[in-house]
Amino acid sequence: MKNVLITGGAGYIGSVLSHYLVKNNFNTMCVDKLIFGEKPIKNLIFKKNFSLFNFDINNKNKFYKF
Fold first, then answer.
1. Which residues on adjacent β-strands are paired with residue 27?
2. Is 9 exposed, middle or buried (0-12, 13-18, 19+ CB in 10 A)?
3. Helices (H), the chain
4. How crowded is residue 36: how many other Cβ atoms within 10 Å of its Cβ?
5. Closest of 50, 53, 51 to residue 23, by C-alpha
6. FRET partner for 19 with CA separation of 20 to 30 A, picked from 34, 50, 53, 59?
7. Is the separation of the CB atoms in 55 and 31 below 8 Å?
8. What predicted TM-score, i.e. pTM, was given to this entire model?
């Protein structure tokens, strides 16, 4: 299984890509601030090959620990 990191994975384009990747058996890691909520990816949260990280990638301290 391949690993993919999507920044902005809960946004419009990111959520479409997240659904596609999870459906096609990619390990999908989504980083998003969730400004507009998690509704677009809500059904992915409990999938084994999907991980959601709620933070801003501009926050260097959190991103480098990721």
1. 3
2. buried
3. 12-23, 60-65
4. 11
5. 50
6. 59
7. yes
8. 0.87
